[in-house]
Amino acid sequence: MAEPRPPRSPSTPREPTEPQTPAAAARPLLRRPVLAAPRPAARTSPVARPPAAVRPPPAQRSARAPAKPAAVAASALSPGDSTRLNKRLAELGVCSRREADDWIAHGWVYVNGAVAEMGMRVTAQDKITVERAAQRQQDKQVTILLHKPMGYVSGQAEDGHEPAAALINPRSQWREDHSGLRFSPPQLRGLAPAGRLDIDSVGLLVLTQDGRVARQLIGEDSSVDKEYLVRVVYEGADARRSGERAEPLQEIDERDPVRTNVQAVFPQALLERLRHGLSLDGQPLKPAKVDWQNPEQLRFVLTEGKKRQIRRMCEQVGLKVVGLKRIRIGRITLGALPVGQWRFLSANEHF
Q: How confident is the model at residue 260 (pLDDT cuts 50, 70, 90)?
């Protein structure tokens, strides 16, 4: 016969149990649609709590994305207004519209506790939640900084010219890349330029898989400035060109020797017009910073990026652009990155 177990001593500590917080008790049960390969329901994290000011949770924000509160977005919804769900997620800075569509298709987005449907509209009163699987997907996305040489187009191949993305391979990764990341073929999927450089323009080109980075750099509400070195010749205040280049641009570098003194013959009044007072396509341009880098090179800082903007601006004041190089985008500079090589944007770098 087994001995009876001794009674528990009052001093014996019991195993602690985690108390359920009121917030956890109120959390809705989120059901996922049945998929081909069932898996456990993932935890969700809040994206919006209307009608108060909204900020994406820290877990939703990547070091490569702008850490700007969604409450300051210019397109914030007013009570009663509605917008498409993918646009709303993009406005909140959580992802791009394309990413939002992908998340919705995967069943990772919920509106008021129900699985969201493609194309649905939401209001400021709707509560949007996103599964952590979406964050894990974003964490794998990369942003690449390339020193684009002449002869490559920024986007898709055209007229027999290769796209700049063709330069992204393990051999051309800069040996002084301190990001800690190594190249792998999946990083090429969905890699797209965030902005463009003409085929004979050189300098800093950003390619990214992250829609938030693309929106920060080229979105309608982008305020990131871009800096260029521009070599010019003065053809006279009355010169007017058709916009077509008769010859390719030249390579350009900050240390190039000065051959002609354009600054000496270019009127100061026309320099002021470059800074503010020009229009393109019937629309006035935003103020620009334009100064002489040396007697034949101008330094442009722009906050907008119309097609061939710098060349067309120069044409209006009698200047012909013979070389153009982008050296900075926001807080990211081209630095010593060699021509034709690339590096990753580090986790501690921000545009």
A: confident
